[in-house]
């Protein structure tokens, strides 16, 4: 604001000139003049500027106010001041000393992190301090949940409060002292005493994967967004095949920002600070190119007894088809010179998600149409794809879309592009026959479909015109998280029964449902009986066959690794069946 007034002190400027200044001198990632107009509009109301002749003019009142301001500019990217991180406290220094390659690989995934309170202005650090102190000297599960509920108004649900507790454990701040009580870890005690944000950053880096490593990605990737970082996170998660969600990456970025290690440039972009650069160089970090080998060793394949997934090589897996479709979709969205490219990429992406369709294009016609559902319950969705090389699609008329829908018998329209300016987005969101979809979200759905596939019913929020564009991701994320929780539950069940089978004092390795649920609770899984029985039945089915069931008791007949192989094999069998069908179809055509 003050810097904008200063820019007008020498001469009046247009909004476009002020936008160029914001981009070039202040590194603000604004794609349109809208943020500039917001500021000049407010300044005009206060009498500090006047708007006429397509220029913004500084008034005498503005000059008087400007004289009282202290102005600032961002640190140039090529500036590299020498910054020395403060030394780590004793227990934290010991924690960092233990971070060899094996320890880095064994860190928690940190896939479901939730810090109550606000993430801005260090609020997340304050929240973590308050929660950690609540566990000194110790606290019970029930008391901790009640403390979270009473302290943070937005964490009133028991499940939310438990997630906050689980987050503290994942971040290395609390540990169990019994089956029902928790206490602060030695490293957390040292951080509470020092109050040094870098000490917290060190603890978190030692506890969860892809934390300090985010700094390396910010340095290597040109203008990385949270979506890009989320996709690249899979390279740093040896205990898991799926990439992190954007929410999990955002939590990391908010913590890095609160600790002064990154600075936020826009809603989705960040840059490493000089302190962040020094922190990165001072910490042992996970290097995926060195850590993964083409073939997993025997140690890597061995299951962990704490319920976490086994370490599996990622380089041995070929690039999923979905990744190629998603990459083309994102590139095509910015290729304004070739709009048909996005039209075709959109039809391909929706087809990959189970909505087969056809590209049409041309003046006065839909860009394409797809079918959602099968048989008499299916419906036709028209597709309108918009490209933009410079950011959100500028306001364009939506007149004529109803006629285009009628021409192909479509029930509704999918308006797809790399974001839309406010007025266009508002008009489309308020139309009951238009579903607005950001290409970045569609690309993420396509990528996830390879690893966390959703049914058409679960994908319905993606194309539902009754949902606002801003709400689609949250609706889909609930289904993704449910799928991930189900996978974690299945893994834990096989591992629990494997441990029981190997116990020399337990003959036969059989466990009843009550004992299984009790063991799940000790591992942090609080699941109702129905989902547990459903998962056990799936694992005991003839197609998987890694469990046996007898009189409501279960035992394992295969290792965790074998169970994973059998589940993955089902996908290969379906792919082989599809290839066989195509071969037969081609032979018959010939």
TrEMBL record:
Q: What is this protein called?
A: Restriction endonuclease
Q: Where is this region: Disordered?
A: 286-319
Q: Which organism is it from?
A: Streptomyces anulatus (Streptomyces chrysomallus)
